[in-house]
Design brief:
Blueprint: H1 7-10, E1 36-40, H2 42-45, H3 59-67, E2 71-73, H4 81-95, E3 103-109, H5 112-116, H6 122-139, E4 140-147, H7 159-174, E5 178-181, H8 200-216, H9 235-269
Parallel strand pairs: 1-2, 1-3, 3-4, 4-5
Helix pairs in contact: 3-8, 4-6, 6-7
Amino acid sequence: MTVVVDIRKSGIINQPGTLAPLSANNGPSSPPNLGVLAFGDSITNGGGELQWGVALQSWALWVARALGLPFTNYAVDGATVDDVVERQLVAFERTSARPHATYDLGCLYIGVNDVRGFDWHPARFEPQLRRALAFLAQRSERVLAVAAPLDLGRPRAGAKVAELNAIVVGAAAGVSALVLDLSDFGGRNLVMADHVHPTAFGQIAIAQRALGVLAGDGMPARVQPHELIQYDPSWRARLQGDVSFAYRHAKVSARAVAVKARSAVEAWRG
């Protein structure tokens, strides 16, 4: 027996030109927040080789996954604070289908490439950082800014990192943003041999620290990032990782010595 249903009378759809009223199950009429919005450099962009079978993904993406929220990322490898303000914010306004929408969380981790450069100028960095944070604050219920590890780079960025972090903390306070303090962040399995880029597990560790900050502000995670991964801790995988790290660390150390020696010669020449 064939059953024919008139969908116009069944309530599945309405007559042409009419809209069905929202029921209690349909939710509010106002659009929801769009999740997590991120700007920054390669650390926030993510991408790279596997670590024991775990993909190297952005810490901000792990945060979004743990919160159960969608993720939008405009971070670009090698970016400085000028790139964030002059390119990434512009790209957001130009390409977003909803540039005036509100996000649950705005994330900004920038400054690593600025302080590692020879032309670090705190007075020029600060106003640009404040512009980026203000942009996020206008569009996000919460903003999370990140302070960099003190043991950054080879050769080490040194005292410039403390200057950077002081600016981050002050600028964050100006827009009531939260601060993720990574000043003590580091470790063999968390940071690559260049002492700049997090490994796959390092990205997860940063995300879990960020989630702790957010939970303290009333934004708890639905799941922890480490619960979302599976990995191979076999002796073969560990040995391969150790050999690879030792080789790369030796190359980075040799390059750092060469850079310092060249800088000393140039300074002597005057």
